[in-house]
Amino acid sequence: MWCIASKSNGVKQPGGFILSIIIFYAGGVVADDALDFQKSLPARVVWAVSGQDAELPCNVTPPDSGDRVNMVLWFKDTTTGIPLYSLDAREGDVSKAQHWAISNDLGARTDFQTSGPSMGRLRIKNVRLDDEGVFRCRIDFFNSPTVNYRINLTIIVPPPMPVIYDSEHQEVTGMAGPFREGYDMSLVCNVSGGRPRPEVSWWFDHRVLDGIMEEITESSTVNVLSIPTVPRSMWNSYLECRAQSSNLTDPVIRKVPLDIYLKPRKVQLHMKNTLLSAGKPYVFHCESAGAFPAADIKWLLDGEQIRGHNVTETKGVNTTSSTLIFRPRVSDDGRELACRAESPFFSGGILEDRKRLHVAYPPVVSVQLETSAAQAPLREGDEVRLSCEVRAKPEPDRITWYHRGALLDYNETSGVLPDDRTLRLRSITRDMAGDYSCAASNSEGEIRSPTIRIRVQYAPRCRPGYESRKTGALRHRAVTARCEVEADPAGEDVKFQWTFERGREVIRAPSTWIKSKGLSSELTYEPRAESDFGTLACYAVNSVGNQKHPCLVHIVQARTPQPPGQCQLRNQTSERLEVLCEAGSDGDLPQHFVLEVSEAPVTSSPPSRAGVSLSTLNDQGAPSLPLGTPLLRKLGAAPRFTLDSLEPGRDYQLAIFAVNAKGRSEPPVIIPSVRFSTAMEKLTRTDVEDTVEETSTQPMAIVLGVLIAAAVLIVGGIFTTAALVTYRRRTALAELERQTSGPKATRASRRSMYGEEEVELDIAANFGDGPRVRFRCDDDESTHGGIEDEGGGGARGRPLLHEPDLIMSRAEVPPESAASRTSC
Fold first, then answer.
1. Are residues 424 and 512 in the same domain?
2. Which residues pair with 220 in a beta bridge?
3. In 394-467, beta strands by DSSP E
4. Which residue has the higher pLDDT, 115 or 158?
5. d(CA 320, CA 295)
6. DSSP state of 646
7. Shared-domain flag, residues 56 and 151
8. Using an 8 Å Cβ cutoff, are 485 and 461 in contact?
9. Confidence of residue 116 (pLDDT cuts 50, 70, 90)
10. pLDDT tens readout for residues 57-72
11. CATH number of the domain where residue 647 is located
């Protein structure tokens, strides 16, 4: 049963009117409607968005201007039946017509507009999907035929929010990515639902990137975005996936922010100095921009990363700054310093800025010998060229040459010709041999090269000091003449020969007389007659050539040495005395010196105040005092002797003379009355006298009296001690004389090394019974230079009575005595 509600300006009408409408539909009107629908009138499609209002048009204008609308009826999805909505204008104007609508949900939301811009339109409020269908509008006029319109109402359902998936089918809920600049990107936009089926598209920067849908099913629509090369412009931006079912609706948009890694776009190396000094620190700056995340900066030298230097790095959002403190080396000159910006997210995504280093450094210098000279030994007279090899920056402004550490100047006379980097030695001599070096200087400093040694081979020549020598000799006694040379090459390559010049006669010495070794040669020669004294000449030869000038040895007749001169006494301490003389001529034979100490002859001259009386009468004439028996004898290679064992308070006489194989010097130097002063003598002669002279007041006289009394006591004690010592010494001398003249003594004689006369010596066969004798082992000539005995300690320290009665050299002991068989 249909229920119809009527409206008239919003007020429902009585039910009797509704009944008349039903009766009207039940008549021939229904039959006419069926015929009209059978004609299949074209339908006009009207789109409406679900939830919004829909307006269905129906033109109610009469075809004849004199006609008017009688009734308007709306039907839905049927050709016959009760109308959805009715308008009854039979009683007058349409604007005053009566409105009726079915009292269901759809009827409650419908309204026919008879005035205003929407006149002749059925409006359905808040349409739903079930409102969709074909509506028919029937218009009855008073005079004109009935008109029907068909309207196909289609409801549009907007799609839901798109869902985004990445290439691994994971839903993107936040930021998409990360993606890398220059690489591909893939995103999937999926839309489920929507009516009609929505169009799904990708947008960037208000432009469509992809509007082609790859997959369409009953429930979803999919658009896959694939970008083969991600552009830099997408950094810090977003993509949009839009789904739209109709132009009547706004698209549903899902924005996806992008996480994109960028390559560095810019790198710049800043270097203030164009010329660097080797070894000095310099600061280099490098700046990189455009990378995201900010790039890492590496420093490279000729492609190799620099390590071990001070590097500081600061990063921003997409900028990086790095500072390098670098000390260039000489080897870095010409190399490339590179600042490299790279992102760890890109393989090969790097940028570099390079600067070539120009390193200034002090010269690197070496000396080279020319090839031709280096291949063969150099000999005197050859020409040599030395090259100074220099590597420097800037180029050297000065080259200097050095020989044996001394600066070489240009000297054309001697053949030294320095010419910038080449040193020319013309007609080289032996003196030009040695170490050579060159020095080069520039703004960074001056450096001298390592030395190169030039060896110059030369013929033999006399060693300095051996050009001409004099050797004294005795008849029938062999002497050794020595010759030493300098030569290169040396060793076995050097041969010697000797000649003897006697007047105009030159005699070659037999090889049996010659003994040569290395650079020296000795000739044993014995002059037998007066004519055998002359000049020996020594010649040497090597592979370079013969010796031009021989080494000469003049054989002369030996003489006795001259006495020493300028003898002086020097007090070292109160108990030590030093005798100093100057040596005279040695008579052309090795000489040594002898000091003999004996008791001074009794004289009337008082001792000097200093305790030592010195007489050198032999410098002006013969000595006036006889030589006594020696109490002590000292030998030495030089006329210097030290006495520290003489008994104080006694006078001694010193005799000094020189001795060689020919004999001893005559006359000897005599120093009489040598005495070590006693303590009392020093006190009375110095302290007391000086005190008396300097004191004039009476209190000082009292002090002087006290001192004199003390001195008398001390002197008395000293004289008592001296008397006792004298007595004991005389007793010892008497015992010595007895033992020497006893039956155990033997008489021995030998020729003295100091002269030709025979000297009788009493040597006890038994050392325990005889006098004490000290033997000096000085057979070698070199030992004569020492004045020490008993292990080199020197003759010093003990009183005379405790010293040996005689000091003898080993050579002075008679061979037949028992003492000669003792070993040194």
1. no
2. 192
3. 398-403, 406-407, 416-419, 422-425, 434-442, 445-448, 452-454, 456-462
4. 158
5. 6
6. P
7. yes
8. yes
9. low
10. 988 888 888 888 899 9
11. 2.60.40.10
Asked whether residue 444 is assigned to any structural domain, the reply reads yes
Of 644, 679, 714, the position where a domain reaches its end is: 679
Residues 266-302 have pLDDT tens digits of: 999 998 888 999 989 999 999 999 999 999 999 999 9
Q: Which of 50-54, 378-382, 663-667, 797-801 has the lowest mean pLDDT?
A: 797-801
Average pLDDT over residues 226-240: 92
141 and 18 share a domain?
Answer: yes
State how many domains the chain has.
7
Q: Are strands 147-156 and 43-49 parallel, antiparallel or unpaired?
A: parallel
On the question of pLDDT at 465 being above 70, the answer is yes
pLDDT at 438 (0 to 100): 93
Beta strand pairing call for 359-369 and 276-277: parallel
How many Å from the N-terminal Cα to the C-terminal Cα in the chain? Answer: 169
Cα dist. 179→206, 214, 239, 259, 368 in Å? 21, 23, 13, 6, 64
The DSSP secondary structure of 2-56, one letter per residue, reads --EEEEBTTBPPPHHHHHHHHHHIIIIIHHHHHHHHHT---EEEEEEETTS-EEE
* Contact indicator for 391, 363 with CB cutoff of 8 Å: yes
**357-366 tens-digit pLDDT:** 999 999 999 9
Q: Which pLDDT band holds residue 522 (cuts at 50, 70, 90)?
A: very high
Instruction: Confirm if 263 and 346 have CB atoms less than 8 A apart.
Output: yes
Dist. CA 799–CA 647, nearest whole Å: 6
Distance CA 188, CA 165 (A): 5
Rounded CA-CA distance 120/61 in Å is 9
Same domain for 600 and 520 = no
* Boundary of a domain, candidates 156, 189, 223: 156
Q: Is residue 511 part of a domain?
A: yes
Is the CB of residue 380 less than 8 Å from the CB of residue 544?
Answer: yes
pLDDT digits (tens, 9 = 90+) for 66-103: 888 899 999 888 555 788 899 998 887 777 888 888 87
For residue 730, CA distances in Å to 330, 366, 630, 673, 724 come to 91, 84, 16, 21, 10
Is pLDDT at 167 greater than 80 in this prediction? yes
How would you class 347 by CB atoms within 10 Å of its CB: exposed for 0-12, middle for 13-18, buried for 19 or more?
A: exposed
Is 238 part of a structural domain of the chain? yes
Q: Are residues 175 and 87 in the same domain?
A: no
**Are the CB atoms for 98 and 17 separated by under 8 Å?**
yes
Amino acid identity for residue 734 in this structure: A
Both structure tokens of 498: 């000797």
* CA–CA distance, 488 with 542 (Å, rounded to integer): 8
Tokens of 466: 């051996």
- Taking only the tens place, the pLDDT of each residue in 596-628 is 999 888 754 444 433 443 433 444 333 444 567
Stated length of the chain: 824
- Does residue 424 sit in the same domain as residue 383? yes
- Put the strands of the sheet holding 416-419 in their side by side order: 276-277, 359-369, 384-393, 422-425, 416-419
pLDDT tens digit string along 432-450?
889 999 999 999 999 999 9
Predicted pLDDT of residue 346: 87
| Amino acid 714: pLDDT | 73
Residue 748 lies in a domain: no
Residue ranges making up the domain that contains 336: 266-357
Please report which residue ranges of 170-291 form alpha helices under DSSP H: none
